[in-house]
Amino acid sequence: MLKDKLKHFNIILASESPRRHAFFKTLDLDFEIRLQPVEEVYSKDLKGTEITDYLSKLKATPFIEDLKNNDILVTSDTIVWLNGKPIEKPKDEDDAFKMLKSLSHTTHEVVTSICFTRKSEQRVVNTTTKVTFKALTEEEIRYYISRYKPLDKAGAYGIQEWIGAIGITSIEGSYNNVVGLPTHLLYETLNAIAKGA
Description:
- The chain is an alpha/beta fold.
- Helix content is 35%, strand content 25%.
- The protein has eight helices and seven strands; from the N terminus they run αβαβαββαββααβαα.
- The chain starts with a helix and ends with a helix.
């Protein structure tokens, strides 16, 4: 399958997210992990997919000069979008509580962009998933934060964890996107690159 089509390419994933690593393994991809720190700063004029498109490209910048002809560098960014504003990763447990309180009894969007960078080209794809939470009690929010410590997650929650099981009433779009990576877009785009499309 895709692994065979990509045998002449070297796939580099620039992410320390264990969820993204797991998805690459689920797709049976051979890949290496490379990490470079990037200050994720963007113009406040950007909205939704404009933010994630920009940041996914920005994350590729430190690697570009070192790429070889057969390298495909994959960088990605995810935000939670609510009422016209981005919700990123919480600074601390109090911040996580405020975030989850704001997501309670509402529908928000999870927006992800994936950037594929080669020596010869760069392409960016994105998708948006709508997620609806029931009205969460303060007790439920505090239990989740103390037990699961979701400080490394955009919006302060993981859909695959306890809070998702008890709190999410509907989802429209890619589930894997909310976990951390829209794998259908990763697969489609790598297929297109392998075909030279």
